[in-house]
Automatic annotation (TrEMBL):
Cofactor(s) recorded in Swiss-Prot or TrEMBL: Zn(2+)
Name of the protein described by the UniProt record: Ribonuclease Z
Keywords noted in UniProt: Endonuclease, Hydrolase, Metal-binding, Nuclease, tRNA processing, Zinc
Summary of the function given for this chain in its UniProt record: Zinc phosphodiesterase, which displays some tRNA 3'-processing endonuclease activity. Probably involved in tRNA maturation, by removing a 3'-trailer from precursor tRNA.
Binding, Zn(2+) 1: H62, H64, H140, D210
Enzyme Commission numbers on file: 3.1.26.11
Quaternary structure (record): Homodimer.
Cofactor note: Binds 2 Zn(2+) ions.
Catalytic reaction list: Endonucleolytic cleavage of RNA, removing extra 3' nucleotides from tRNA precursor, generating 3' termini of tRNAs. A 3'-hydroxy group is left at the tRNA terminus and a 5'-phosphoryl group is left at the trailer molecule
Family membership: Belongs to the RNase Z family.
Annotated residues for binding of Zn(2+) 2: D66, H67, D210, H269
Keyword Iron: no
Active-site residues, record numbering mapped to chain: D66 (proton acceptor)
Length: 312
């Protein structure tokens, strides 16, 4: 499981950073998932290891343009790539309407089914073929969410000693149990959950949209390996802006990550004022003063593997 940072800027792009787009790829599937799709995302994908052909789900955190203006071009690129399989599209109703209107006005007919899921109607959870997707409400100037993404395609191993201890000899039922299916054996029902286990703990990441209140994530941190959260400003600069931005600063999110002992905090969505070489140092120092765990300030093009925790 890997995170691919395709765009790490806030508001508008610069020469070194594009606007919001983060991809998640999975070890046992060619399918991948995209969170947010700012203008120019299809160009960022062309520079990456990812293929539009295998993009299976697109998730949009909120309706601001730096998170969704790249959608029509990306969908057209997916069409050109030859994509025929359905694509799940999870987004606010307004963004879904924007996409459908653009496709209609430009007479673009997609060769695949764009399965839409309006965030306002989603029951906070969606099971995809390759991951579990949970939606967390955040606070911004407009409704915004985070996506909690948990991998599901994990090979299972058998509790061989337990099977032998219970007198269950080898046979086709072993294969079924290892694949996660319950089976009948000698007038008994064998439960896969009892006789098999995941090869590693499911890896999990939360990728946030714009959010001024990290504490809203507090009840959703169980099992999370990496939190990806915006740090648009330093604490001092945020209060100099002069209007309500609805954003977080590096100090605020670092204090939250320290309070809940998160193993890995990734900051992104940086204001263009910090894009020149060396200008991110104040953000980094501010975060490090409050958080002693693993800290990453994402750059465009960064690929971040999420390590496995093997089970026994």
């Amino acid at each position: 499981m890997e995170l691919h940072f395709l765009g790490t800027s806030s508001g508008s792009p610069s020469r070194s950073r594009n606007v919001a787009a983060t991809a998640v790829s999975f070890e046992r599937s060619k399918a991948w998932l995209l969170v947010d799709c700012g203008e120019g995302t299809q160009h960022q994908i062309m520079k990456s290891q990812l293929s539009p052909y295998h993009l299976a789900a697109i998730c949009i955190t909120h309706l601001h343009g730096d998170h969704c203006y790249g959608l029509p071009g990306l969908l057209a690129a997916m069409m050109v790539s030859g994509r025929k399989e359905p694509v799940d599209f999870i987004a606010p109703k307004a963004v879904i309407a924007f996409v459908h209107s653009t496709l209609s006005l430009t007479e673009l007919v997609l060769p695949f089914d764009l399965r839409t899921h309006a965030l306002e109607e989603l029951q906070l959870s969606l099971r995809l073929e390759f991951c579990q997707l949970d939606v967390i409400a955040l606070r911004h100037r407009v409704p915004s969410v985070a996506f909690k993404i948990t991998e599901t395609l994990i090979p299972r191993k058998l509790h061989l000693e337990l099977l032998k201890a219970h007198g269950i000899t080898s046979g086709p039922h072993y294969n079924q149990l290892q694949r996660g299916f319950d089976v009948d054996y000698q007038d008994a029902r064998l439960r896969s959950a009892e006789y098999s286990y995941f090869s590693w703990q499911p890896r999990c990441v939360i990728i946030c949209g714009d959010n001024e209140k990290p504490e809203l994530l507090a009840n959703h941190l169980a099992g999370v390996d990496v939190l990806v959260h915006e740090a648009t400003f330093t604490h001092a600069d945020l209060h100099k802006v002069g209007y309500h931005t609805g954003h977080s600063d590096a100090k605020r999110i670092a204090e939250f990550a320290h309070k809940y002992q998160l193993p890995h905090l990734v900051l992104f969505h940086f204001s263009v004022r910090y894009h020149a070489e060396g200008m991110l140092e104040p953000l980094k120092r501010e975060a490090q003063r409050s958080f002693q765990g693993q800290l990453t300030l994402a750059e465009d093009g960064l690929i971040l593997p999420i390590a496995k925790q093997l089970t026994k």
